[in-house]
């Protein structure tokens, strides 16, 4: 290995260094180049600990035999497009512990043999779809210890051989439903130490080959079947050291091969017998306050019947406290007189929490202060919960270092002024299902660190700016399933850092100019499932940074083209489930330069004119047109960079009018799902492969003859016959892979 570690190199130049000037070291007698390149046969190059700052285009083109390149701790801030072109044999690229904030889309081009890519310990805040598109041989990608907060759809497209994806120690709170699409070989996914507020089952289920999933040290408090986790090959699931307080019996019903489940260090005081994972053999429960009264008898019986190995010393009846769970029999868990077990449980929990010195009755000490009597405060995770306690007012007296406060499923209709004193470190506040009708002025006063506010499933019909003042860092506001009929535009003026606004399933019927006047920092806007029939021109204009706009499941009769003006950063547009019927020419032209993902599925589309997608540039990566009423569709030659096209569920009529689409699809290396519905002779055939259906079309025979070369003298069989044999062979190979 050629070592240049710590030699204080300051630049990598793209100019070719003459062979006579190339050196093998950086000492006083070495040739004086900004980067003295070794001989062309060098296979391993160690440059870690230098000050390169930037990797320019084709920086290593004179080293075509490199297999290992180490650029750790080089203070690299920029990797130019094409920086590694020419390194077609490189197997390992280590860019860990640098200062990268972004990767240009073609920064990793030319690395077709790369097997391992290390990007841990950088400052990456986003991943752009297509970044890893040229890395078809990579098996391990390490993105741990970065600053990622969101994974977009198709984030890892192209990594068809990746087996281990490391995303731990980021700030991930949202995974797009298709974030993990295109990873057929993925077996291990590390997502521990992030900020996931709920188990992202829909996104995880895209990686159906997963065998090991690590989700520990995330703050979600519940997981159930509704989270949609469906991983038929999953063997090991780690949910340790989180904030789990409840687990539904069917949470893992669609993970039939699950063998090991790690639930250590959560807040589970009960666990139901799990339904579905019939191969479960190991269950880790240490560090949970499990209560072993008669209510735990079904769990113990199930564990014995399923032969699951486990171990946990328990709380519970005084005579059992501290016993190992696997040492108990169901008959040990007696059911005393009605109410006695609850009384004993309360006494035990009270005794287990030492009273704060000089504290008021009903306040127990945690590591940083008291805790209300009816709540649970966990010092290690800095989480406090009063979920489902029937409270009629917001309690007070939580530890000052609380970061997550869960008050869901209580009964207070109003959050009063200064409701959360002393909680200046609070990051996440859960107020779902509380019957809330109002937040009074100053309700959030003093919550300087608050980032996540959950107000879903309440009875709110409005919010004032005064109610939200006091939370200047609030980035995620969840207002789904309330009673809003107008956008709470005035409230947004108090939230200069608002990143994501969720207003799904309310009763909004119109977006007017000024509704988003306070949303200048807004990136994601979710308005699905409302009654929107109109989005006025200029209504979205103030949100110039908007990247994701969900308008699906509304009453829009046409694409709001004029309203899309002034959104230069829009990446994803969801319009599915609207009664669109048809599209106009240039319907998406205002966002043509930025749009990457367009959803028009289930929109009743019967026809799409040739110019409907005009203006959409090469940045478009996915187009969803499934489940419409399309009988024909023009070719879309201007969308040459598509990575996903879904045309399934349309009643295509396969005649000569569909020939341009057939030709266009034949040139795409994509599975599109388009099948013929009529005529009956073609029903069920794939539009892309149904060549025989279109053979009689005018011009098709001449086109075919023009492409057919004359047979060579002495050649065996005709070219047409040989091509047909090759095509049949390739088709059988594709069938074997499920394509």
TrEMBL record:
Residue ranges of every copy of the LRRCT domain listed in the record: 288-336, 650-698
Full protein name: Chondroadherin-like protein
SMART domains, sorted: LRR_BAC, LRR_TYP, LRRCT, LRRNT
Q: Where in the cell is it found?
A: Secreted, Extracellular space, Extracellular matrix
Q: What does this protein do?
A: Potential negative modulator of chondrocyte differentiation. Inhibits collagen fibrillogenesis in vitro. May influence chondrocyte's differentiation by acting on its cellular collagenous microenvironment.
Outline the subunit composition: Associates with collagen and binds to collagen fibrils.
Please note every region of biased composition (Low complexity).
Answer: 354-369
Protein family membership: Belongs to the small leucine-rich proteoglycan (SLRP) family. SLRP class IV subfamily.
Kindly give the PANTHER family that the UniProt entry links to this protein: ANTIGEN BSP, PUTATIVE-RELATED (PTHR24369), CHAOPTIN-RELATED (PTHR24369:SF210)
- Per its record, what are the GO molecular function terms? transmembrane signaling receptor activity
Biased region (Basic and acidic residues) positions are 727-739
Q: Which GO terms describe its biological process?
A: inflammatory response; innate immune response; toll-like receptor signaling pathway
| Gene transcribed to yield this protein | CHADL
Question: What are the GO cellular component annotations?
Answer: plasma membrane
The main location class comes to secreted
Query: Entry's SUPFAM superfamilies?
Result: L domain-like
Keyword Repeat in the entry? The reply is yes
Question: Which keywords label this protein?
Answer: Disulfide bond, Extracellular matrix, Glycoprotein, Immunity, Inflammatory response, Innate immunity, Leucine-rich repeat, NAD, Receptor, Repeat, Secreted, Signal
Task: List each copy of the LRRNT domain by range.
Answer: 370-404
Read off the Pfam families from this record: LRR_8 (PF13855)
The ranges of region (Disordered) come to 331-369, 700-739
């Amino acid at each position: 290995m050629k070592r240049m570690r710590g030699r204080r190199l300051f630049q990598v130049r793209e100019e070719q260094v003459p062979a006579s000037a190339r050196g093998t070291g950086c000492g006083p007698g070495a040739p004086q180049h900004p980067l003295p390149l070794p001989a062309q046969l060098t296979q391993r190059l160690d440059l870690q600990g230098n000050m390169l700052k930037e990797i320019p285009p084709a920086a290593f083109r004179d080293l075509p035999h490199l297999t290992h390149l180490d650029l750790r701790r080089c203070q690299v801030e920029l990797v130019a497009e094409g920086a590694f072109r020419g390194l077609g044999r490189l197997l390992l690229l280590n860019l860990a512990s640098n200062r990268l904030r972004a990767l240009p889309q073609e920064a990793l081009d030319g690395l077709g043999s790369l097997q391992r890519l290390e990007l841990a310990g950088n400052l990456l805040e986003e991943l752009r779809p297509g970044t890893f598109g040229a890395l078809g041989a990579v098996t391990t990608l390490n993105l741990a210890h970065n600053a990622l907060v969101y994974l977009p759809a198709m984030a890892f497209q192209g990594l068809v051989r990746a087996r281990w994806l490391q995303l731990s120690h980021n700030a991930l709170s949202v995974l797009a439903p298709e974030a993990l699409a295109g990873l057929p070989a993925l077996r291990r996914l590390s997502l521990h130490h992030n900020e996931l507020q709920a188990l992202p089952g829909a996104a995880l289920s895209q990686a159906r080959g997963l065998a090991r999933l690590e989700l520990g040290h995330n703050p979600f408090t519940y997981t159930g079947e509704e989270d949609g986790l469906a991983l038929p090959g999953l063997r090991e699931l780690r949910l340790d050291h989180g904030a789990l307080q409840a687990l539904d019996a069917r949470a893992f019903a669609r993970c039939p091969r699950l063998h090991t489940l790690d639930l250590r260090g959560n807040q589970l005081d009960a666990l139901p017998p799990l339904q579905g994972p019939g191969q479960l053999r190991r269950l880790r429960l240490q560090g949970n306050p499990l209560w072993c009264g008669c209510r735990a008898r079904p769990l113990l019986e199930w564990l014995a019947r399923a032969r699951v190995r486990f171990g946990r010393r328990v709380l519970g009846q005084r005579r059992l406290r501290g016993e190992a769970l696997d040492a108990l029999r169901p008959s040990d868990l007696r059911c005393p007189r009605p109410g006695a077990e609850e009384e004993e449980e309360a006494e035990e929990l009270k005794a287990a929490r030492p009273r704060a010195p000089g504290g008021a009755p009903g306040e127990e000490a945690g590591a940083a202060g008291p805790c209300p009597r009816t709540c649970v405060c966990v010092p290690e995770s800095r989480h406090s919960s009063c979920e489902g306690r029937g409270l009629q007012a917001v309690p007070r007296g939580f530890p000052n270092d609380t970061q997550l406060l869960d008050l869901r499923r209580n009964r207070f209709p109003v959050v009063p002024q200064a409701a959360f004193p002393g909680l200046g470190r609070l990051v996440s506040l859960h107020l779902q299902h509380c019957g809330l009708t109002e937040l009074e002025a100053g309700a959030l006063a003093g919550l300087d660190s608050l980032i996540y506010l959950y107000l879903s499933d309440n009875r709110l019909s409005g919010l004032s700016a005064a109610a939200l003042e006091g939370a200047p860092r609030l980035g995620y506001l969840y207002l789904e399933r309330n009673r809003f009929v107008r956008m709470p535009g005035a409230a947004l003026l108090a939230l200069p850092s608002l990143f994501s606004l969720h207003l799904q399933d309310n009763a909004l019927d119109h977006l007017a100019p000024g509704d988003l006047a306070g949303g200048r920092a807004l990136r994601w806007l979710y308005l699905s499932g409302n009654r929107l029939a109109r989005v006025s021109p200029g209504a979205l204009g103030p949100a110039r940074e908007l990247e994701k706009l969900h308008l699906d499941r509304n009453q829009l009769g046409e694409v709001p083209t004029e309203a899309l003006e002034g959104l230069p950063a829009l990446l994803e547009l969801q319009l599915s489930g609207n009664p669109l019927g048809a599209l106009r020419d240039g319907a998406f032209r205002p966002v043509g330069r930025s749009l990457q993902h367009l959803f028009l599925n289930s929109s009743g589309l019967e026809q799409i004119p040739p110019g409907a997608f005009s203006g959409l540039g090469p940045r478009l990566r996915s187009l969803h047109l499934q489940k419409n009423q399309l009988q024909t569709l023009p070719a879309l030659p201007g969308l040459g960079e598509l990575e996903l096209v879904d045309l399934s569920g349309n009643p295509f009529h396969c005649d000569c009018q569909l020939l341009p689409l057939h030709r266009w699809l034949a040139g795409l290396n994509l599975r599109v799902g388009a099948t013929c519905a009529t005529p009956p002779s073609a029903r069920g055939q794939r539009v892309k492969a149904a060549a025989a259906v279109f053979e009689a079309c005018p011009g098709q025979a001449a086109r075919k003859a023009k492409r057919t070369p004359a047979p060579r003298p002495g050649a065996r069989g005709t070219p047409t016959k040989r091509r047909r044999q090759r095509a049949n062979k390739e088709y059988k190979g594709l069938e074997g892979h499920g394509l």
